[in-house]
């Protein structure tokens, strides 16, 4: 690597945790976790989620962070440098391709959020029924060019932040946005719990433990949510690991990030579902919740104009912290493998994503030619990355870290070369989780997602 691409290091522990958490916190926390928790036993699901995070997802996260910090290079080069003659030496490219594909449709969804933030400021939800909101959303999505243009705004801002650099751009942005995101979320939670009528039902939906609702599928749901929410399998945590100081405690960092990620997901549920039940609306998940249900609630709520603005600002912030991590995966690869400056690499990735995201947006237009076997390019990218590429990338990483990499690598990184006494004491337990427990359950998840279980 030449001097123009000398690798940066995060400057503070708070900044490190903010960046890692920012890469994890996204739309899945807002529109997926609360509903899945409510449908699968509320607090019972949360307890299962904690358990699978501890035994499966956190070990996988530690594997990615350890590999990244040990080699301090992009996700593709990490595997090659550790085992240049191993058959899996090129497997790191999977995470880079996965992150690139996810960005292509994630920025479009971010464009929807940005559009709705604008509509909230203009008070455009006022007086509209759910049917009218649904028609408006469908017309917007099927318009093709408009969501693409809003997606360009998200992509452009992301490019600028990543182009500024790891410390001055990525770390500084997350140190600002993450506290701001939590602050906005707390305002929404306080309003939902204390100032909305009949909010108790919404609280019970997500917090009441109901073990009768727990099934084997619940466990798979918890594993999948935990794994995907921590942004594993896409190279992002490998890259961020390469920027972590050698003095930082990786185990404490990983646990902190996981707890922050889950706490924000629970807070989202506490902000959203008391409002949903207060206005006797059927709880839903996904885009319907964000872009149809909640705007309808804001129109009926006292102070709804302000809370709509705050909520969609929160969604945009969560989107941007995620797109930055996805973008950095590709930029780091291009920058190091082609030996070019960061800003030049950002432009390469930017223009490549402009083209791919245009095709993704175009695939959602009415009578689009980019529909294959009844699914748009948008849907295909979403399904392929979520059900195949991400879990496969996670499986490869934990097996590589636990079985293929030198035996000393994990211990050196997770104990800071045996200088962290507590970590050294429990390393054997963590090693078992990385080598046996995490791969076993991730393989089960993979088989379940592709329909073989």
Please explain how this structure is put together.
The protein is built from 19 helices and two strands. The protein is mainly alpha-helical. It has one domain (3-449): Hydantoin permease, CATH 1.10.4160. The protein has a two-stranded antiparallel ribbon. A hairpin with a 2-residue loop joins strand 1 and strand 2 (375-376). Helix 4 (43-71) packs parallel to helix 11 (216-229), helix 7 (130-142) crosses helix 14 and helix 17 (377-404) crosses helix 19. The longest helix has 34 residues, at 304-337. It is globular, with a radius of gyration of 21 Å. The mean pLDDT is 93.
Key terms:
two-stranded antiparallel sheet; globular; mainly alpha; single chain
CATH architectural type: Orthogonal Bundle
Task: Give the name of the CATH superfamily.
Answer: Hydantoin permease
CATH third-tier fold name? Hydantoin permease
Secondary structure: number of strands: 2
CATH class division: Mainly Alpha
- What is the total number of structural domains? 1
**Poorly predicted segments:** none
The largest pleated sheet is described as:
2 strands, antiparallel
How are helices and strands ordered from N to C?
HHHHHHHHHHHHHHHHEEHHH
**Shape, per Cα inertia axes:** globular
Q: What's the N-to-C terminus distance?
A: 45 Å
The order of strands across the largest sheet is 1-2
Mean pLDDT: 93
- Work out the helicity level: over 70%
